[in-house]
Amino acid sequence: MRIAILGFGSVGRGIARVIQEKDPGITVTGLADSRSGIMDPEGIDLPAALDRKEKKGLCGDRQVSPLNVVDGAEYDALVEVSPTRIDDGEPATTHIVHALSRGKHVVTSNKGPIALAHRRLHALAVSHGVQLRYEATVCGAIPVLHILQHDLLGNQVQALHGVMNGTCNFILTRMEDEGLTYDQALAEAREMGYAEADPTYDVKGIDAALKLVILANTVWDLGVTLDDVEITGIDLITPEAIRLACDRETTIRLIAEAIPEKGLLRVSPRIIPQGHPLLVEGTLNAVTLHTDLAGELTFIGKGAGSVETASAVIGDLLYLGEHHAGAH
Fold first, then answer.
1. What is the pLDDT of residues 289-312, one digit of tens each?
2. 3-state SS record for the chain
3. What are 265-281's pLDDT values in tens digits?
4. Is 204 marked active-site?
């Protein structure tokens, strides 16, 4: 399979390294970061591109833009892992639209386009006979979308609940384990590389809400957006609240939940008992699916990281190679 990769930050480089190390039958024929790009129908020299990026901050030629690669490279699937804005999903949405319109499969880790324009992008993929896959947008290495779309066929999913943001889970875990204040735990999360310099996106619950929107639209085709989710973050939680929960043999976690029958889409700190399936530590994610035939199923794994995200992207690509070989 030939692919083009847009975005050569930690995720894009992680994908390139996995392809280089595992040799899964994938050839990279197009590559772009925000300021440069390169195209080679015979296959790009990935070690050279990685070395160039590390030394010069560019993966290729300054005259080649991401859109040049989308429209001009020869590939079967576009891998869209560039940064995106959650207000409009750009520039990733435009990249995805152009690739689908060319009759190319798309695999993305970008939450913005999928949360904002799922129906439109899905319809565009269907009309051109190609696949839009986005396992990496939700819960990192946990293959929850594949499970929902393929492994649970025949089941009615009645509800889902999850711990979907590793930054928040790390902060709450440290507040519980060490009695830290929110600010102290956040500072530690920054030092460990688990929190951004501006953590608003995570600690206000926005990241978890975007993942919830993607899951809800995938499972139930609700056509919802971020505006439809009731969102409360963790930034006002005090050590006293954590201590009170512990005294009652419970704890606090940021839980995303969707119950369509009740019209409920919510992300908020919730009190859960010790031993609860969603009580995971550190940066782990967990998702519980409530189904009519299989009952309750809980999946736990790493929710972020370049290698974990690469795992989800490579899984989508190999699925395409096995089930949808070639593009139109």
1. 999 999 999 999 998 888 899 999
2. CEEEEECCCHHHHHHHHHHHHHCCCCEEEEEECCCCEEECCCCCCHHHHHHHHHHHCCCCECCCCHHHHHHHCCCCEEEECCCCCCCCCCCHHHHHHHHHHCCCEEEECCHHHHHHHHHHHHHHHHHCCCCEECHHHCCCCCCHHHHHHHHCCCCCEEEEEEECCHHHHHHHHHHHHHCCCHHHHHHHHHHCCCCCCCCHHHHCCHHHHHHHHHHHHHHHCCCCCHHHCEECCCCCCCHHHHHHHHHCCEEEEEEEEEEHHHCEEEEEEEEEECCCCCCCCCCEEEEEEEECCCCEEEEEEECCCHHHHHHHHHHHHHHHHHHCCCCC
3. 999 999 999 999 999 99
4. no
Domain membership of residue 260 as a residue range: 148-303
> What CATH number is attached to the domain comprising 94?
3.40.50.720
Say which of 53, 104, 211, 302 is annotated catalytic.
211
What is the per-residue pLDDT across 155-209, written as a single tens digit (0 to 9) for each?
999 999 999 999 999 999 999 999 999 999 999 999 998 998 899 999 999 999 9
Cis peptide before 91 (omega within 30 of 0): yes
Q: Over the range 276-299, which residues count as b (16 or more CB within 10 Å of their CB) and which as e?
A: bbbbbeebbbbbbbbbeeeeebeb
Does residue 122 share a domain with residue 34?
yes
Domain assignment of residue 273, yes or no = yes
139 exposure class (CB count in 10 Å sphere: 0-12, 13-18, 19+): buried
> What's the structural domain count of the chain?
2
Q: What gap in Å lies between CA 133 and CA 215, rounded to an integer?
A: 13
Q: Answer whether residue 328 is part of any domain.
A: no
